[in-house]
Amino acid sequence: MDHADWGIADLPDQTGRTFVITGASSGLGSAMTRHLARRGGRVIMAVRNTAKGDQVRRALLAEHPGADLLVRRLDLLDLDTVHAFAARLRDEDVTVDALINNGGIGTVPRRLSAQGVESQMATNHLGHFALTGLLLDRLAAGRHPVVVTVGSDLYRIGRVDPDDLAAEHGYSPGRAYAASKLATVLFALELDRRLRAAGSPVRSVLTHPGMAKTDLARDAPPVARAAEAVMGLVFRRPVDDAVTPMLYAATNPEAPTGRHIGPGKPLRRARPTFEKLSRPATDRDLAQRLWTRSAEITGVDVAGRLAEPTTTDWMPGRSNR
């Protein structure tokens, strides 16, 4: 397992680059926004709660008055807002240099999206699948364009059935979360293969923060929250340390694809560590099946957009095939 001798202090000047960060109003997203803005990057904060996003923006501007920050509404569970977010960037002719697919939910009671998909799968995977496809033309014109997907080591215990994304059989919040993170990993790797095959300038880089001190488990059952709290006393990294792999991937054109870039071993200073992937992440047949099903549900033909920008008519609340 090799690594890069790189830390937050090595973050280069980002003046002239535009970043879209999902889930930018808390946790990892807020930390990445702060570091990139400090280094001159323009950050479009894609958030579900714009009031909370505005509060974070004001706090960052008080610390860094010259920061270039925009707050835009994006609810990854609601595909209408994903389409509206992307359409606004297109109407404004915004070039995106880096899309950081960071936002997500975890260990929540079972509920379904408007398309009938379990909410963790719909939020953590399908929302980002659609957003990425809709922004590929914005990214293709960028400087060192990259899609950074935030995964998790829990992919190793995840199980994904593309024909049962509603998680109808034996629902468990923890298992559903692991399944959603396996889906994000499969998507990032399949996107990398397809981008390279198409000769696209856009790169797909897969990362994870390790165990981080975030509020992702805020909606988890009390027992799960208690277990997280106990483990967190020893193993969970401060968010400013945990975002190291993501910031490295978003700002370094040499960041490797086809690897899982993490922060390294716990209890040590974070540095981008290039981890080899194991099954089920290496199951290409599963990745292709999930890709096809994701395109059917979201109505976003990501594969078609690799060749040239296309427009997909969106009908809210159902699959567009």
How would you portray this structure in words?
With 321 residues, the protein is an alpha/beta fold. The chain has one domain: NAD(P)-binding Rossmann-like Domain (Rossmann fold, 3-Layer(aba) Sandwich), CATH 3.40.50. It is 42% helix and 12% strand. The chain contains ten helices and nine strands. The chain has helices at residues 27-38, 50-63, 79-91, 119-140, 173-198, 222-235, 239-242, 244-251, 284-298, 302-307; strands at 2-3, 18-22, 42-47, 68-73, 98-101, 146-150, 203-207, 260-262, 273-275. The protein has a nine-stranded mixed β-sheet with strand order 1-9-8-7-6-5-2-3-4, with helices on both faces. Helix 3 (79-91) packs parallel to helix 4 (119-140) and helix 4 (119-140) crosses helix 9 (284-298). The termini are far apart.
Layout of helices and strands:
Blueprint: E1 2-3, E2 18-22, H1 27-38, E3 42-47, H2 50-63, E4 68-73, H3 79-91, E5 98-101, H4 119-140, E6 146-150, H5 173-198, E7 203-207, H6 222-235, H7 239-242, H8 244-251, E8 260-262, E9 273-275, H9 284-298, H10 302-307
Parallel strand pairs: 2-3, 2-5, 3-4, 5-6, 6-7, 7-8
Antiparallel strand pairs: 1-9, 8-9
Helix pairs in contact: 3-4, 4-5, 4-9, 5-9
